Amino acid sequence: ETLTLLWSLVVSLYCMGGIVGCLCSGYLTAKFGKKKCLLLNDVVLIAAALLTGFSRRGKAFEMILAGRCLEGIAAGIHLNAHVQYAGEISPKKLRGFINVTSTVFLALGKTVARILGLRELLGSRALWPVLMACCGLPALLQLVTLPFFPESPPYLLMHKGDQEGCKKAIRQLWGEGQHQAEIDDIMKEKATMKNTKILSVLELVKEPSFRWQLYMIVILTATIQLCGINAV
Predict the structure, then answer these.
(1) Is the model more confident about 96 or about 187?
(2) Which residues does the UniProt record annotate as the domain Major facilitator superfamily (MFS) profile (predicted)?
(3) pTM to 2 decimals?
């Protein structure tokens, strides 16, 4: 019974951490910016990978519990911050396509994880710590490469008021040329946001004017999980 309880915690702590990460992601991306938030999150994910990877050598199941919780928090933050950052640094004509790729790679990641988890590969008695530490590899890759990318132009202009930094980031991302139309769009969005109240989760649920939109999002999200895409 104790063993069953521990493994249940190992599985569920990831989801519980994911909820915490999702709830924190809005505040963190607004305070630190999408790029810095992703970089700090990579450090958390690498720490989680080290905890789970060395848990067998340390003979401490508490390391697995802590690592899984940190992995969940990092995944919750990453899922939101990454989509925002990828969408904001992409040109307008590619933005929809770029946003959809996150779902594709999420499904691809699950597929790769299931394949690596086979007993013939990393799911054996000797190699399971390596399997649990695999999540640190993408985080390490992003930690090395992301510093060469600029911060999100909308964040620089809307949150920092840095118009020159925004123009420099746009030129670095999209090349030289006339990008005044994109800057004007960001300015319009900034003006709109000034007159818009930011709602908390509880206020959003209670707000009658958003009730049908909320129903639609919940139904869509639930049916995506029920359609069998994870099994595919």
Answers:
(1) 96
(2) 1-232
(3) 0.78
Please give the CATH topology (third level) of the domain spanning 1-149.
Growth Hormone; Chain: A; (1.20.1250)
Encoded tokens for 179: 């990008």
**Residue type at position 204:** L
Are 20 and 29 in contact by the 8 Å Cβ rule? The answer is: no
**Contact call for residues 116 and 123 (beta carbons, < 8 A):** yes
User: Using an 8 Å Cβ cutoff, are 151 and 34 in contact?
Assistant: yes
d(CA 96, CA 58): 46
pLDDT range class, residue 208, cuts 50, 70, 90: confident
User: Mind listing the pLDDT tens digit for each residue in 6-45?
Assistant: 889 988 999 999 999 998 888 888 888 888 999 999 999 9
The domain spans of the chain are 1-149, 197-231
Residue whose tokens read 């990453």? 78
List the structure tokens of 122: 């990393």
Query: Which one, of 66, 64, 70, lies nearest residue 52 by Cα?
Result: 64
- Would the CA dihedral through 108, 229, 77, 87 be positive or negative? positive
